[in-house]
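Async update (no meeting this week)

Hi team, since we skipped the sync, here's where things stand on the single-chain job. The sequence we agreed to prioritize is pasted below, unchanged from the tracker. I ran it this morning and attached the output directly underneath so nobody has to dig for it. Comments welcome in thread, and please keep replies under the output.
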Amino acid sequence: MFIFPRRRTAGNLRRIGLPEEHCMPPRTRTLSAAAVAAVLALGTSLLAATVPPAGAAQPQSAAVTDHCQGRCADILPPGENGNATLVEILGNKAFGTHPAHSDDQLDRYNGLVAGHTNLTDQKLTDFFNDASFGVAADQVESVISPREDVTITRDKKSGVPHIKGTTRYGTEFGAGFAAGQDRLWLMDLFRHIGRGQLTSFAGGALANQGLEQQFWPQAPYTEADLEAQVERIRTTEGARGEQAMADAQAYTDGINAYREKAKKGRYFPGEYVLTGKIDAVTNVGEIQPFKLTDLISIASVVGGQFGGGGGGEVQAALSLLAAQQRYGVEEGTRVWESFRQRNDPEAVLTVHDGTSFPYAGKPDTARGTALPDPGTVTAEPLVYDRTGAAGTNRKDPVEAPARLAPAQGMYDDGVVPEGTLPGSGDGAAKRGMSNALLVSGEHTASGNPIAVMGPQTGYFAPQLMMLQELQGPGISARGVSFAGVGMYVQMGRGQDYAWSATSAAQDITDTYAVELCEPDGSAPTKNSTHYRAHGACTAMEKLERTNSWKPTVADSTAEGSYRMQVWRTDYGIVTHRATVGGTPVAYTSLRTTYRHEADSIIGFQLFNDPAYVIDAASFQQAAARIDYAFNWFYADSRTAAFYNSGMNPVRAAGVDPALPVKAEKAYEWQGFDPAANTADYTPFAAHPHSSGQDYYISWNNRQAKDYATAAFGFGAVHRGDLLDDRVAALVADGGVTRASLTRAMAEAAVTDLRGEQLLPELLKVIRSRPVTDPELNAVVQQLDSWRAAGAQRKETGEGSHRYTHADAVRIMDAWWPELIEAEFRPGLGDGLYSAFTASLATDESPAASHGPSGAHSGSAFQYGWWGFADKDLRQVLGQRVEGPLARTYCGDGDLGACRDALLTTLKKAAAVPAAAVYPGDDSCGAGDQWCTDAIVHRPLGGIGHRTIHWQNRPTYQQVVEFTSHR
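Output:
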C-alpha cells in the first residue's frame, strides 16, 4: 500500500486542500498491524470492503504442480500498480513519492546493465521476479475476495495479483477486478483510442489529435461492427467461442465491479478528476461502464500495432517508379528489387536449418499490378470541419484550484506524447521490438531447454501490459496480458511450459486499386465516391467520428472540434487516390485481420488450458489459432519450438504482394468474401515452424528461407545478428545456463549494431591506404578501440552517466547519417534516394529521435541502411556478396573514391560538438549523451518515473528452465 515518508505525510497532502477520502490507498491493503494503522490514520471507510472477514482462510498453495521448481523468473518495469489516486498524483508531482508497487521493478530491470557481466543462476532474482506459481505464506501482502468463488492474493515484493477461482466465472471476474485495480485509467484511455474518441475523453492536445487520427482509420468501426465481432466468435467458434465470450463477459463484470467500488469509495484514479470527469469534492461524475465491445476496440489497437504486417505498397510503388525514372524500366526494377531484399540469402533466419517455407515472393511474371501514373498520387484527407484549437496546440488554461496546481497541464503534450506509441507519429512504421533466445537441451548444462524471451511494447507508466497469475477451472498460467484484454495470460508460463512472441510482420495487408465511377455514367474523377465492384458501380461507405473538447486542469488545450472521415469499400479503407493509365482509382488497404481483431482469443484461451497444451506440437496448434502475425516460441523440459502465426491470404497466381494490385476478381485473394472479410489462408504446414532445432533467435528478423519480408530492411545485417552470433557461440561451447543465455541477451542489448557489424568494413576501406592526417588518424584509432572493446553504449561505472568510449559513440552517431548519404545519394540521385529513405529510414540508433521509435524508447537498430551499406562496402572491397546490390554506390565502385567519401564525412562528423549531436529535449540537456539514449517511461497517467540506462531489450521478459514434465 502507499504510505508517505514521515516528512511527507497524508497531512502534508491534506494541506493541499483535498478531502481526506483522496488520501486513501487505491489498491492493495496489507494485513500487517502497521498497514492497518496507516489505513486508520488516513480514514476507515474502505477497510471493511477490502480486508478479508475475520476468520477467513489464508491462501493455500495452488493445487497444481509447478514444474519450474524455482527456475522461472520474469520482470515488467516500472511496477505492477498502474493506478494512483488524486492525492498520490499530487504527491508524485510535489514530492516525488510513488504509490506502492508502482516502481519497484525498475531498479531490478535497470540493474542488469551493470550486473549481467557477473551474472550467475543464483543472482537472476536480483534482476527478475521469482515467477513461481502461488505466494509463499510469509510473502503474502494482501488477500481480497471480490466474490465468494475467487481470491486475489498479492505478494509483498512486487504486488502481482495471484488470482485463484473455484469457478470459471469467478476466476475471470477476479482477473477483471484485478485489472481494474491495476490499470483502470489505462484501459479507459485505450478503449477511447480504439474508438477514435481520445480528444473528447482526455483533452484536445495536438498529440491526442494525432494519436486518434493514426489509429482510428485503421479500424474505423461502428458499434454494429464491434458487436458483430462478438457475435461471430460466440456463434461460429463452437464451444471454445462460447466459452471465450463468457470469459470476456465475466472479465468485464469484474472491471465494472471494481469501477463501482472505486467510485463509491473515492479511491478511483485521480486522472478522472484532473480531466473533469469527476468532481474532487462532491464526487459527482461517472466512470462509464465497460462493455464487451470495448474489449474489441482495445484489441484492435493492440493487435493492429503489434501483430500487423504488410501494407505500404503505395510508397513502394513510388520508389519503384523513381528507380525506373532514374535507370529505365528494366534496370530500375533490378535496382529496386536489390534494395527491397524480400528474400535476401544473407539475412539472419529464425529457422536456420535450410527448411524452406515459400510465401509472398516475387512472381516470375506479375499480373494485375497497378502502378500509379507519375505525379498523380494524393493522400486521402482524414480531418474536416476544424474549429477552435483543432489542428493547433493553442492553450487556454483553466483557473484550477490551488490544491490541483501541481498537476496543472500534465497532459498539455497529450496522454501519449506523439510518436512514442508503436505505430504513431510522423514516419510511423510497424515496430516489433521483442526478442527471443532459446537453446535446446542437448546444448545446456542441465539437459533441459532454456529460454530468455519477451515482448517489447515500449516504456510507459503504467505499462501497456500487466502481470498476473490465473488459476481456475481450465486455466493455469502466469505472465502478462495487455490491459483491458487480460482474461487470459497472453505471454508467460503454464505448469510445465512457457511461451512468448515477437512481432512477425509477414505480409497480411494488401493494397488494391479500385476503379472509380459515377452512378449516372458520367466520367469519374479522383474525388469520386463510387467504385466498380465486380462490374457494378457501388457506393463507398462513409464512416465518421466527430470529437470536441474543452480545457481541463490536466489539458489546457483551448476548446475545439473536428470531424474524421474515411471511405470504406469491399477492398478496405481508402488511403490514397491516383490515376492508373489515365483512369481515376482509389488505393485501399485491406488486412486479413480487419473485422477479426478478437478472433485470436481462441488461441490465447488454448495457451492457458493445461489440458490442451501438453507438448510442443499442441502448443503449435494453439498458436495457429492466433490470426495476428507473430512468431511464437515455446519451451518445456524436453523441447524448444517455434511457430509463425497469422492469417496469410492465398493470393491469386502472379500477384506481386509488394505492390498495389487491381481490384478485380482475377486478382483478389482466393476465396475472398468481402461481406465478412474472409478468404482462403495458407495451411498450418506452410507457416514457418520448427521443433528441437539447436537454438532459436528472433529479433523481428526473417523467419525462414523463402519466407519473403513485408518491408525493406531485412538483409545481410540485421539486429538479429547481435543475438545469433552470441547464441551460436554459446551453443558451440555447450553447457548453456540461464545466466549465460541472459548475459548474451544483455550484452546485445547495450551493443551498437553499426559498431559491431559495419565498423570493421568501414575501417577496412579507410585503411586500404595509410591515414596521413594525424588528427583524423586519431579519430580512426578511437573508433577502432571502441570496436575492439565491443562497440557498447555503456557507462564507465554504474551511475556515472558517462559512456566508456564516449567520443567514439558521439562520432559514430554524427557520422552514420552523413556517410550513408555520401555513399548512396550521388549514385541514386536525389529523387530515388529520397524515395528509398521514405520506405526505410537510414538510422535508428538510440539517439536518433527522428527514427520510427522516437526518442528514449529503448528499441534501436530495427530500421536502418546497415544491410545496404554492408553489401555495398563488401562490393567495393571485392569480397564475396550473395544477393548483391544491382550497382555499387560508394565512390561509384572505386575503392579510392569510396575511401575519400568516408574520410571526408568522418572528419566533418568528428568536429560536430556533443551539444549538436545530442541537442536536448524535455528530458535532457543539450550534449547529454547518456540521457539522450536513456529510457524514459512515458507517463500515460499522472505518475512519472526516473530515467534509466538505455537497453535494447524486451519490456517484459522471462528466463525459464523447466526441470520436469507432466
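Quick observations from my side:
The longest helix spans residues 806-839.
Residues 1-62, 423-430 have pLDDT under 50 and may be disordered.
Reply here if anything looks off.
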